């Protein structure tokens, strides 16, 4: 049994807890939280909730620690720190800071002799893998990534900061005609506006000026001004009833040419349709926790990403079984 | 430069030749054929065409030999044999015989200290990879593979063996409504007939009985009797004009559930739309040739499949560059 620790018990931590339950070769050892453990109720019976400060006492009882904090401030600190004590996995998703994060985790993990796998999830993660495979197969081609339909936490938060807004949910939606143009091999050059639209569901504070709020959202730089944005005003009850899920997904496509004169076209498409963004990310984290455990058993140390890990490490099945049933 | 040898110069061999041209870190060293080399004209200028018997003299001048023969009789013999002299890659696609082929290639390659990568292409190959990743991520789920729309060589050959048939092309077509049911998360149980239809374009011999030919095709066991099959009779000119391509493709889907009580659904879908089946397969072979070369440089020996190879080995880019641009 691979003994899993969860550090941080929000949506992602709860998702990992559920994923561990689905994998017969894993068991949850403990959950670590910054909150008062007495206030944190988890789903698994008989598993302790501990203070984050007590984690170091668990080094002999945990094979892989899955870090479920945020990328902005938690993970840049936590992943290198805990890589000094545990094999670790995180879902660090600030694309621009990945090289720096990689270097920090690599240094810590090499020193401790542990394995650290960073940026695991679907983007970065499964989408990245599909970009790499497709690029290696079709060197002469063009990449496209579309996100959605799904909830963007960052954009929802940005709307909530607008004066007069009580609560909000924002959906990122890929433009169907742009997707179709890519699928048809037209290799279009697409602007930001042509790729995605943004749909916002907003609950106003009492007495707020709807027109003013809508204008402020639609013209918000970086977040909305480059997109066709729709704003719907709804009641708090409607928001709760119709928009409490965290769905997401998207499409990675590569269109490329082969032949002596590039006479043949090919399209590789990978897509995800997810009811729960955090639970799917958690499921990817659990699979890579298995890889971290096995690599560590083999004596590997240092930082890895999804690019560096042979697919067979993710599966509970033996190489023989995989070749027989899935190849 | 990775020096590539091509063994067998049919559609696949020609495809590899084109793929090598697209990869800046590869060069074609020689093509080996069972035919009289004087009769084989290749596309690349200045590259020798040699007799297959002369291959052993090329051991110092070829880094990876790509075997482009057929799975029925060529590869079971050739891959182990040439693994005694070269790093080899093949596209062995007789799923049921993979374990046996693996064992033979593994023994030969371990003895010679070479790397052999077998069953590389899209199915087996990229489709297998996607089945593995999706199963590891969503342990509670259901797999679906659909093929087409594309030309099935085996089914076209079967039609050609019918008395009264001069020439034929058969297309395998996925049933759109079945695909949609899977995409909608309905987890349908699908019979052979519900998944694919078969469309045949047939050129008759002069004086042949069309009704009899059609009946014989539609009732042919294994090949057509379990499918809804359509037969079109066309002229030789029409066949040449409209059906001379070798397109193919397909879909690998996994629908799965997460959450404490499986309350959330997810769909992972991978699809290919290929103008040229052999050229795409060749492009995958070229990418894995790079992996074979690198593994060999690292001192690895023995048989591998796509499951055993970390994605980064396929790309000409460095790990640093990959993390920066594709993660």
From TrEMBL, chains A, B:
<dbReference type="InterPro" id="IPR010190">
    <property type="entry name" value="Diaminopimelate_DH_Ddh"/>
</dbReference>
<comment type="subunit">
    <text>Homodimer.</text>
</comment>
<dbReference type="InterPro" id="IPR032094">
    <property type="entry name" value="Meso-DAP_DH_C"/>
</dbReference>
<dbReference type="InterPro" id="IPR036291">
    <property type="entry name" value="NAD(P)-bd_dom_sf"/>
</dbReference>
<feature type="binding site">
    <location>
        <begin position="9"/>
        <end position="12"/>
    </location>
    <ligand>
        <name>NADP(+)</name>
    </ligand>
</feature>
<dbReference type="GO" id="GO:0019877">
    <property type="term" value="P:diaminopimelate biosynthetic process"/>
</dbReference>
<keyword id="KW-0560">Oxidoreductase</keyword>
<keyword id="KW-0028">Amino-acid biosynthesis</keyword>
<keyword id="KW-0547">Nucleotide-binding</keyword>
<feature type="binding site">
    <location>
        <begin position="91"/>
        <end position="93"/>
    </location>
    <ligand>
        <name>NADP(+)</name>
    </ligand>
</feature>
<comment type="similarity">
    <text>Belongs to the diaminopimelate dehydrogenase family.</text>
</comment>
<keyword id="KW-0521">NADP</keyword>
<feature type="binding site">
    <location>
        <begin position="33"/>
        <end position="35"/>
    </location>
    <ligand>
        <name>NADP(+)</name>
    </ligand>
</feature>
<feature type="binding site">
    <location>
        <position position="248"/>
    </location>
    <ligand>
        <name>substrate</name>
    </ligand>
</feature>
<feature type="binding site">
    <location>
        <position position="277"/>
    </location>
    <ligand>
        <name>substrate</name>
    </ligand>
</feature>
<protein>
    <recommendedName>
        <fullName>Meso-diaminopimelate D-dehydrogenase</fullName>
        <ecNumber>1.4.1.16</ecNumber>
    </recommendedName>
</protein>
<dbReference type="Pfam" id="PF16654">
    <property type="entry name" value="DAPDH_C"/>
</dbReference>
<dbReference type="GO" id="GO:0000166">
    <property type="term" value="F:nucleotide binding"/>
</dbReference>
<dbReference type="GO" id="GO:0047850">
    <property type="term" value="F:diaminopimelate dehydrogenase activity"/>
</dbReference>
<dbReference type="GO" id="GO:0009089">
    <property type="term" value="P:lysine biosynthetic process via diaminopimelate"/>
</dbReference>
<feature type="binding site">
    <location>
        <position position="147"/>
    </location>
    <ligand>
        <name>substrate</name>
    </ligand>
</feature>
<keyword id="KW-0220">Diaminopimelate biosynthesis</keyword>
<feature type="binding site">
    <location>
        <begin position="68"/>
        <end position="71"/>
    </location>
    <ligand>
        <name>NADP(+)</name>
    </ligand>
</feature>
<feature type="binding site">
    <location>
        <position position="198"/>
    </location>
    <ligand>
        <name>substrate</name>
    </ligand>
</feature>
<comment type="pathway">
    <text>Amino-acid biosynthesis; L-lysine biosynthesis via DAP pathway; DL-2,6-diaminopimelate from (S)-tetrahydrodipicolinate: step 1/1.</text>
</comment>
<feature type="domain" description="Meso-diaminopimelate D-dehydrogenase C-terminal">
    <location>
        <begin position="121"/>
        <end position="276"/>
    </location>
</feature>
<feature type="binding site">
    <location>
        <begin position="120"/>
        <end position="124"/>
    </location>
    <ligand>
        <name>NADP(+)</name>
    </ligand>
</feature>
<keyword id="KW-0457">Lysine biosynthesis</keyword>
<feature type="binding site">
    <location>
        <position position="172"/>
    </location>
    <ligand>
        <name>substrate</name>
    </ligand>
</feature>
